[in-house]
Every structure is written in C-alpha cells, then in structure tokens.
C-alpha cells in the first residue's frame, strides 16, 4: 500500500486546515507527521539519557566523596602519628581545613546534582542534532540558522498537537478513536515539554558544567580517576592500544556508540521487514477468504441463471482454478519469505534465547534498587519483545490460514451441484494442512514457542 494509492489517508489522524488531496501536498503533510514523530522519539532519547547521565555523574561524585572522606581520616591519623611534636592548635587547624574541603564538596554536590561526563556529553550531541542544543562557539549566521532550525522543530510539534487535538474533539466517534488519538498526542506533548525544558534551562546546564570542571569536583588522584572510569566506560573490551588519553578515549567511545547505534537500527529494520512480510501474507490470506466467498456466490448465481450443465461446470471450474492458483501463490510466497529470513531469524532466536537466560541470571544476583538492575531489566524486556514480535507475526499467519479452512466450510456451498461440491471439498481438505514456519528443523515459530522460552 503506497501513499499514492490512497491520497486521503495520513499516517496519523489529524485535522488539517487545508486541502491535502493533491499528491505533493499530501506527501509533504505525511512527511511532516512522520518527521515530527521521529524527532519526538529522539527528543525523548536525548532528554532521558541526559537526565540518566546526570544521575550517573552524581553517583560518581558520591563515590568520590566516600573516597575523600576515608582519605581525610587517613591523612589526619598520618599527621598525628608522624609528628607528635605538633601543637594541638596546628593539628586542629589542619583537620578543620581537610574537613571544610570535604563539606564544601558535599554541599556543592547537593546544590547542583549534575555533572558533565562522557554519557552526558553524548546525550547533548543527540540534542544538538535535534535542534535543542546550539553549540557554544556558534555565532553569527551559524547561530541564526540553528535558531531557525529550533523554531522549525517547535512549530512542527505545536502544529501536530493542534491538529491532533482538533481531530480528537471533532472526529472521535468511539472510545477507541479517542484513546488512540490521545495516546499519540500525549507523546508529542511530553516531547514538547522536554524541548522547552532544555531550551529554558540551557544557561543553568552550562553553568553547572562550568562549575563541575573546577575544584572540588575535579578529579584529584588516580583512585578518583578509576572511580570515574568505572561509570563512564561504555562496554568492556580489549584494545591493542592505550586509550587513556582524552582524544583516543573519545574516538574509541564514539566507535562503540556508533556500532551499538547501527546494530540497534539493523535489528529494527530487519525485524520490522520480517513482521511486515508476515502482515502481507496475512492480508493476502484475508483476501483469499473474501475471494472464496465471492467465488461461491458467483457459482451459485451461475447455477441459478444458466441451464446448460456443461457451461455451469466450465464456469465453476474456471472460478475454482483461479482461486486455487491464488491460494498456491500465497503458499509459495509464504515459503519464499520464510526461506529468505529463516537463517537470520534462527540465529537471532538462538542468541536472543541465550541472552534472555544469561540476563535473567544476572538480574537474580543484582539489587532491585541498583542502576545495573534497571539497565539489565530494560535489556531483558527488549530481548523478550524482540522474540515476541517474531513469534507473534508467524503465529498470526498460522491463525489466518486456519481461519481460511473455517471460511471455506462456512460458505453457502449447499446449493452447488455435485461436481462443484467435490471441488470445494478438495479445497477444504487442502486448507486443513497446517502451515508451519520451522527454524533449523526443530523450532517452530509460534506463541507456544515463545511461551517455552519464557518458561525456560
């Protein structure tokens, strides 16, 4: 189904204040809706990862505080034990200085509750690409163009919200229409709130970043550097070079992020392509059901209008042959689609099942309040949803083929002549054969398979 075939159906229902029936205007309107949703999705990603990055950086500073508190006590003990001739006032002053530095660090951490760090920086890069974070060194024409881009993003969101809201008010006739439109609109409203949250608080974020590059937040020894690396390290990996230098570290980190980003979209593209192919098969099976009913109706009509038995039989044979040919083509297409995807789906199924088991074991050994648990849980849900999408798509096709047999039996076949009834019985027997999508000769894609993985 293409945009050109149905120029009156937008990707998302909305009230549009102009005539969009012309192909060019329709495509521009549809593209605007899709771009808005795409940008809103990444605004959620950029904003949420920025917040999570800030919370991670607060955790870094709390760990540094713990280290420095222990270091202060150790320094005080060392000061007293090394030089017992020191005046008590000198010792007291030294202790007060060390404790004051720690308290200043603690108070500063409570005041800002944020930190610039590697994950935080990458989140700002996403916001920059989305038009919400103009680079600091951009002036003149660059600044003007970027601000124009920001205004376009804001206008696009507000326009989408307005048209969705008007459509909900004017066109919602059922509860389902209302809830579906409201769900989409609320997602864009939330993204718009995040847009204004970033833009309005830009100076505060910049101020917090500047403060955190100074003492007492700046790393002061190797142990604190190790604490920092523990939180900012993206993925454990062995590298044949020293990546402790800033530029090399950033390059390596960007490479890891880029790889994960590309792999994520490969999963999205491949899985949606497979699911889309299954949906196409389901749609053609539904068309088969309709054509079977229409074929039987036409054959009954021929029986009523034509007296010559040979003419009736020939006409019915042609109609039945056309339907059988369509049915065989749908079966052939489903087999071809399965053969195309079966290898990659089988590999993905086995690996994802293994990942689910490993992740479940990791979750059992983690505290529910820890950041690691939340991260592992999100990964676990993503793995489960990935397998569910694949198995559910195949299961729907299987159900549609089963419905085809019921539809064949439910047609008005009782008034047909004996020869045509025999042909219809043959069709019913053919539709009784189960359609199975097997992987590696021992795994059948269905909801039962998904349940087995979940139980395991």
UniProtKB/TrEMBL annotation:
It is found in: Cell membrane. The chain crosses the membrane at residues 24-45, 144-163, 377-398, 423-443. Keywords: Cell membrane, Membrane, Olfaction, Receptor, Sensory transduction, Transducer, Transmembrane, Transmembrane helix. It is a multi-pass membrane protein. The keyword Cytoplasm does not apply. One of its GO terms (cellular component) is plasma membrane. One of its GO terms (biological process) is signal transduction. GO terms for molecular function: odorant binding; olfactory receptor activity. InterPro entries: 7tm6_olfct_rcpt. PANTHER family: ODORANT RECEPTOR, ODORANT RECEPTOR 19A-RELATED. Belongs to the insect chemoreceptor superfamily. Heteromeric odorant receptor channel (TC 1.A.69) family. This is Odorant receptor.
């Amino acid at each position: 189904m293409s945009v050109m075939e149905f120029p009156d159906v937008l990707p998302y229902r909305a009230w549009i204040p102009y005539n969009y029936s012309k192909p060019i205007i329709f495509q521009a309107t549809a593209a605007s809706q899709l771009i808005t949703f795409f940008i809103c999705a990444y605004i959620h990603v950029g904003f949420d990862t920025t917040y999570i990055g800030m919370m991670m950086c607060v955790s870094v500073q709390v760990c540094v505080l713990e280290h420095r508190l222990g270091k202060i006590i150790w320094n005080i003990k060392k000061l007293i034990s090394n030089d017992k001739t020191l005046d008590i006032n000198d010792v007291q002053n030294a202790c007060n200085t060390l404790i004051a530095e720690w308290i200043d660090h603690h108070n500063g951490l409570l005041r800002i509750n944020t930190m610039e760090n590697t994950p935080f920086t990458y989140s700002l890069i996403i916001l920059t690409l989305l038009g919400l974070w103009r680079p600091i060194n951009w002036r003149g024409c660059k600044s003007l163009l970027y601000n124009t881009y920001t205004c376009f993003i804001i206008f696009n969101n507000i326009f989408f919200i307005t048209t969705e809201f008007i459509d909900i008010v004017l066109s919602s006739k059922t509860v389902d229409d209302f809830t579906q439109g409201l769900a989409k609109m609320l997602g864009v409203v939330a993204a718009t709130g995040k847009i204004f949250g970033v833009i309005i608080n830009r100076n505060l974020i910049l101020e917090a970043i500047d403060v955190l590059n100074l003492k007492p937040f700046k790393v002061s020894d190797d142990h604190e550097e190790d604490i920092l690396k523990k939180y900012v390290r993206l993925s454990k990996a062995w590298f044949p070079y020293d990546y402790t230098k800033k530029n090399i570290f950033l390059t390596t980190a960007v490479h890891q992020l880029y790889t994960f980003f590309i792999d994520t979209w490969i999963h999205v593209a491949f899985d949606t392509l497979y699911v889309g192919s299954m949906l196409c098969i389901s749609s053609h099976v539904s068309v088969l059901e309709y054509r079977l009913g229409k074929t039987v109706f036409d054959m009954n009509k021929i029986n009523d209008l034509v007296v010559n038995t040979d003419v009736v039989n020939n006409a019915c044979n042609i109609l039945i042959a056309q339907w059988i040919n369509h049915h065989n083509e749908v079966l052939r297409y489903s087999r071809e689609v399965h053969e195309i995807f079966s290898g990659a789906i089988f590999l993905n199924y086995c690996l994802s099942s293994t990942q689910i088991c490993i992740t479940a074991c990791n979750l059992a050994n983690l505290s529910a309040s820890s950041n690691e648990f939340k991260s592992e849980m999100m990964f676990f849900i993503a793995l489960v949803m990935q397998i569910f999408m694949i198995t559910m798509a195949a299961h729907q096709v299987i159900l549609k083929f089963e419905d085809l047999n019921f539809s064949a039996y439910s047609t008005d076949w009782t008034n047909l002549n004996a020869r045509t009834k025999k042909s219809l019985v043959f069709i019913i027997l053919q539709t009784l054969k189960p359609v199975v999508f097997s992987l590696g000769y021992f795994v059948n894609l269905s909801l039962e398979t998904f349940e087995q993985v979940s139980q395991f």
